[in-house]
Amino acid sequence: MDDTLHEAPLQGRDITNGILLFVGSIVCTSLPTYYIAIKPNVLFLLVCLAFVLVNWRRVALSEKVLAILVASVLGAVISAFYWGDMTLALYPIYLWLSLILATAARHRDTKLFLRVATIFCIVNVVGAWIGFVSASAGLGPLYTFEGPAGRPAYLYLGTATNSVVGNFIRPSGLFDEPGTLSFVICMVVALRHVTFGASKIDAFLIAGGLVTQSLAHVVFGLVYLVAVGRKVGWVGLAVAFMALPLYFVDSVSMAFSERFFSRFEIVDGSLRGDSRTQITMNALANLDKDTILWGVYGQCSKIAGKCIEMYGGMGENPFTVLVFLGIFIAFPYYVIVFSIARRGFYRSQGHLISLGVVAILLQRPVVFAFGYSLLVILFFFNVGRARRLGSLDARSGGNRLSM
Description:
Number of strands: 7
Structural class: mainly alpha
Shape: globular
Oligomer: single chain
């Protein structure tokens, strides 16, 4: 790989930290962890505890992070008293743990984590394409099972998925659904970009991830094209490589054309593949003064399905957390999104990748979810570190960032 470590020789704790970050941010959200003895959220809690115990001397909360933590705790407690449900006081606990863990993670820990995560993503992309091509060619699922959300899931050659139409699948790799695979790929690429600079590996992952047929992935990919600037040729070569199966296998070409490109057709004034506009409008329709403060119903954090039945489909959009939770609990999400967005407008071309991350978080507001929260917070911390060090411009050919 093109990213090398220039620090002192690796020690046992360095390797342990990198593996713990990988397990806490990616493994605990993967499909296999839902079928082991330890629940995924418990695994995340154990990883956070282990990381802090190993690195407790490094835990040093900055004033900004401490302010977010204190305000979030107070807000959650106030909301819990309002609804008479003290379990709401712990709703943001995964975010709190991610913030504490990230303060203890050194830059070299993140680099080691990214080495492992990159290999994991490459394996998932290759497997996803194998599954997509073989399914399009007529090979059916090898195994059918019930997914974590109760929906039917299917194991194909090289990939799992819960999205199947005839011979056409949207691969999800080792995750429960295609959007999750796309999210992990995009976040790993974003972290790699602010840590190592532009890379051919990133171009491969972005192009390969298109097999998920996620619109958010396409948006992130377009931002990435702008962020890498003159090195856009890497992405073009990667896309061309990924397109080979579409050219040589007629069934694959037909399936991809019929299902993927049809998601970009304009139907009744909107994209056919756009599943967010209507649910966003539904969320906005449920906002009023009381809802903004406290959320529409105190139990929505536990029984989101019931709330959707009561108040209409809202799904994942930037207003869902506000409707379900109220601003006292939800405000850290907006602070984090705004802070990351600000990074995208610094003079460094490389930091434009922050806008791609914002686009993903607006479509998938997962800062309170175990695993996902750690990925987001690691990016949140490292894009700030990259700005201070000026590493993006040094590696990407731009002007060094000012302090």
